[in-house]
Design goal:
Chain lengths: 769, 190
């Protein structure tokens, strides 16, 4: 019964969405017509100046907010669509999101056209290139996996440059041939009139693999890293080629004359565009890294610097007609290691989520607008031209990939198999960039070009996008490993790097590793000192990585355990009288404040339970509104399972420790962490348990070791932004280790609320006994 | 030039080398030139000090020299044989699976790496051995506690049979993402 009810509800959801969609569109339409009405009202009002009008209680002033209002409507539509698709699981498994979004765009465009007989020009090139494209590219560049990218850079460049050139000339040249063969003087548009240069221009537009489309489709198929980075890297780097070819052919069309000098200039221009873009990006990246060095006091605006500098890099590159995409990628990739070393954990999370959000919305909007723009605009459907284009594109891509792989495999250690080649060829999707560039054309044959471009885009997105997933399954292409990077991998990778550098040194061979080593050395010696604040410039990467891992685990631990898990590693913690001064404990726990050590066992347990539950609740209450307050998000992955596991373990721990937990007796067999904190606080010498101070606690894999993680927080604590710092210095006044640990406990709880000023503000007087 | 060539011919015994690896004469010549370059005293064999000089900046240089160049001196055929472990062989060229190449006497690359960790050859990487490696790699930049916690965590992640050390299989398993076999190839030695 219940299931049927649920399924009927689910079935009604698409209808609900459709209804919502129609409502939105009608709203749009009515609002716009009201705008016309209100403007006429104003005129009549002015005409009758003399007669007194009654005071307008309600008026409609749509003009003032029309633009933001419409923009918000579109974004809202896009986001609702995104929500809606995932509620229909069957559909989203078969059809990639991009197809659905284009369909929605078509629908909306159709409705708008019927309603108002004209469609807003949404995919104008300014909106696209200045607002919609940068977030996606920045997201890609900032999170670009550097290692595989650089390892395969040769292959990627070959595909991007030579492949795109080949595609452009092949398609452009042959389509010219087809046009000449199929010319028909009596048809509306005579194909034979299309000159060679417009054809080549068309070829250059249509040959570029589009990063947005590739991202959208490849994200869903989880293909292995190598293929992903090859196709994606190609789609990013071919922007330079496209820009150069586009401008080149446009210039040639204007001047009408092509000479050998122009060809050479074109080559030079390509180098300038590509390298200049990268240099501009790197420059802004270094500026951003340098700026982030000084942001330790204003953590809240750190993400803003990242975004602004990247956007400036993009715009600056566009000013000089350099490749904006490459500049953006370079900026993101260059600034990332330094910025991440400088900014707080929360800023890092912010940057990540903002980038993901913007790029997601952008992508959605792009596809919807693609659909809308298809409905708009004049088209001229010419069977021959369009089918020829389609076939030529596919053939060019296949030949290009096969030929290039044949050459490249001689230089690669890991060869590309036929399966790989097929996926690379099949993954050459065209997208909105081609469309926008086509939009910018000024030739007479714009209509037919645009129609052909749209057809190719639709074909690649729909047909290739939909079938690539089954094909990947069918061909059993290696998929991505979902496991996160472990510390072992990090250690061993570095070890192997050193090993191979050594071998190369022995051979006297200046290979890949040799130069990488030199770069790392240079980086460590000079660059890091300038760009990274404070002590962290000396921190080796392995340590930084380790700290990141530990931070994540510690946050997860505190979030899920409510601090009680902490108790099991500090066996004598949670002494009653020390919990509260900073936390508003509810009245029910107040009797515990003044509790004397001599409590009965049962009462103690009861109080513990009360405190535990109340601590969790209080923590949520601490999230008061404050512009400077940020709350830590727990690490989402496996969070629920983790909580359950931890809860269960906590119950077990409580039962075990219940008998031995006295309030103020320091434990002799505590963890080295505890002994260390106590050693910092006590002047008395304390015997460390165990032989070499190696932790001897049984750690089970479900919960990564807590004592070590908390101990590490100690070491990380110098940085102001990492508020999970445990006070190790000013704990002289403390008498027992228990109090010290409670401080830590409180600190960890407080860190959830405040990223701001000094993390040491509760280091005042010792807690009164 | 003629003298060098005769020296080459007398000093390389092509059969002994070529039976182990099949390399072109050009490659052998290059390696021999390098060998002679490293051999500062022109004694016809290398001592460990010569190699350590080449690897002075490498944090694990001593370890590499120690692991590979086990005898007091290394003559050219042994030099080539040891370096041949790092040749990209045919079998290693696909990404799927790797087999040790018994015909060539070449060890599987991961066992080569494992041996570098496992100095006492007991077949396991114990915590102390791991600590030593970390200490060498990270040097003086980190505190002892940090090293220990990293080592602890590494062992905890990789150690599946709870013997507090990483055996060869666990080592391989933890590296399945890192394509170790194709990483351990130096192009030069083809």
């Amino acid at each position: 019964m219940a299931t049927r009810g649920r399924s009927s509800f689910c079935r009604s959801l698409p209808e609900l969405e459709l209804l919502l969609l129609v409502i939105l569109v009608l709203l749009n339409g009515t609002v716009l017509s009201l705008e016309a009405a209100s403007s006429s009202e104003i005129h009549t009002g002015e005409g009758n100046n003399t007669s007194k009008k009654p005071f307008p209680v309600i008026g409609i002033m749509y003009d003032d907010v029309s633009v933001p209002f419409e923009i918000s409507l579109w974004v809202l539509l896009a986001s609702l669509m995104k929500l809606g698709f995932h509620l229909i699981p069957r559909l989203s498994n078969v059809v990639p999101e991009s197809c659905l979004l284009i369909s929605v765009g078509l629908l909306v465009g159709g409705i708008l056209k019927l309603a108002r007989d004209e469609v807003p020009p949404v995919l104008s090139d300014r909106i696209f290139f200045l607002c919609l494209l940068p977030p996606i590219i920045l997201d890609a560049g900032y999170f670009l996996p550097i290692r595989p990218f650089v390892e395969n850079i040769g292959t990627i460049l070959m595909f991007a440059v030579v492949g795109t050139l080949w595609n452009a000339f092949f398609v452009g040249g042959l389509i010219y041939g087809v046009c000449q063969l199929a010319q028909d003087k009596y048809s509306e548009i005579n194909l034979g009139n299309i000159g060679i240069l417009p054809c080549l221009l068309f070829g250059s537009i249509i040959s570029a693999v589009d990063p947005v489309a590739v991202l959208a489709v490849f994200e869903e198929i989880h293909i292995n890293e190598l293929l992903h980075i090859l196709v994606f890297g190609e789609s990013l780097l071919n922007d330079a080629v496209t820009v150069v070819l586009y401008h080149l052919f446009e210039e040639f069309m204007e001047s009408g004359l092509v000479s050998a000098v122009d060809a050479i200039l074109g080559l030079v221009s390509f180098l300038i565009v590509a390298l200049g873009g990268v240099l501009v990006g790197a420059f802004y990246g270094i500026l951003a890294a340098f700026t982030s060095r000084f942001t330790s006091h204003t953590r809240v605006i750190e993400p803003l610097f990242v975004f602004l500098y990247s956007y400036m890099a993009y715009l600056s590159a566009e000013v000089f007609h350099l490749s904006g995409i490459m500049s953006l990628i370079a900026c993101g990739a260059v600034m990332r290691p330094y910025v991440e070393a400088n900014i707080s954990h929360k800023s890092h999370t912010t940057i990540k989520y903002f980038l993901k959000m913007w790029s997601s919305v952008s992508e959605t909007l792009i596809f919807i607008f693609l659909g809308v723009a298809t409905v708009d605009g004049e088209h001229h459907w010419d069977w021959i031209f369009i089918t020829a284009t389609l076939i030529l594109c596919l053939v060019a891509r296949v030949i290009g990939v096969v030929g290039l792989t044949f050459v490249i495999n001689n230089f690669r250690i890991v060869k590309l198999t036929t399966k790989d080649q097929f996926i690379i060829a099949y993954g050459g999707l065209r997208g909105a960039i081609a469309f926008s560039l086509g939009f910018l054309l000024h030739t007479d044959h714009k209509k037919i070009f645009l129609t052909a471009i749209i057809t190719v885009i639709f074909f690649t997105v729909f047909v290739q996008g939909m079938t690539i997933k089954p094909l990947v399954e069918l061909l059993a292409v290696k998929k991505k490993h979902e496991a996160k990077r472990s510390i072992n991998e990090e250690i061993h990778t570095r070890f192997l790097d050193h090993l191979l550098t050594g071998i190369e040194d022995i051979c006297g061979h200046y290979g890949h590793h040799h130069w990488k080593n030199k770069l790392n050395r240079f980086n460590k010696k000079y660059v890091k000192k300038i760009l990274i604040a404070g002590d962290r410039c000396k921190e080796p990467q392995l340590i930084a990585f380790y700290h990141k891992l530990e931070m994540k685990h510690a946050i997860r631990m505190v979030e899920s355990g409510g601090g009680s898990k902490l108790n099991s590693s500090f066996p004598s913690t949670v002494s009653m009288q020390n919990i509260q001064p900073k936390i508003q404990s509810p009245p029910s726990a107040r009797p515990a404040e003044r509790a004397l050590p001599q409590l009965t066992k049962g009462r103690e347990e009861e109080i513990r339970q009360i405190l535990r539950t109340n601590l969790q609740r209080t923590r949520q209450r601490l999230q008061s509104y404050n512009r400077h307050t940020l709350v830590v998000d727990p690490d989402e992955e496996g969070f629920d399972d983790l909580i359950l596991k931890k809860r269960r373990m906590m119950e077990l721990d409580w039962k075990i420790k219940e008998m031995t937990n006295y309030l103020t007796v320091p434990h002799a067999q505590g963890s080295p962490t505890m002994s260390r904190t106590r050693m910092a606080s006590d002047s008395q010498a304390y015997v460390k348990p165990g032989a070499k101070g190696v932790p001897s606690i049984q750690i089970d894999l479900a919960s990564p070791q807590s004592p070590d993680s908390v101990r590490l927080l100690d070491e990380v604590g110098h940085d102001q932004g990492l508020t999970m710092s445990l006070p190790s210095s000013s704990s002289r006044a403390y008498k027992t280790g228990g109090k010290d640990d409670d401080r830590d406990h409180q600190k960890l709880l407080r860190c959830l609320s405040d990223p701001g000023p000094s993390a040491d503000e509760d280091e005042d007087e010792p807690i009164p006994t | 030039f003629y003298r060098t060539r005769t020296r080459t011919r007398t000093q390389i015994k092509p059969d002994s080398v070529n039976s182990v690896i099949s390399a072109s004469a050009a490659h052998l010549l290059r390696l021999h030139q390098r060998f002679q370059f490293l051999d500062k005293d022109s004694r016809g064999s290398l001592r460990s000090e010569d190699l350590e000089a080449a690897l002075s900046e490498n944090p694990i240089g001593v370890r590499i020299v120690g692991a590979f160049f086990q005898q007091e001196t290394v003559d050219f055929p042994s030099f080539v044989r040891i370096l041949a472990h790092f040749r990209p062989t045919e079998k290693n060229r696909t990404r799927d699976g790797v087999q040790p190449d018994p015909a060539v006497g070449r060890k599987c690359p991961s066992s080569v790496a494992f041996q570098l960790y496992d100095q006492d050859r007991d077949g396991k990487i114990s915590r102390t051995e791991l600590l030593q490696v970390l200490r060498e790699m990270l040097g003086l930049q980190v505190t002892e506690e940090q090293l220990q916690s990293i080592a602890e965590r590494a062992i905890q992640e990789a150690d599946l049979d709870r013997d507090d050390a990483i055996c060869f299989d666990e080592f391989r398993k933890s590296l399945e993402k890192v394509n170790i076999d194709h990483k351990l190839s130096v192009r030069f030695l083809e």
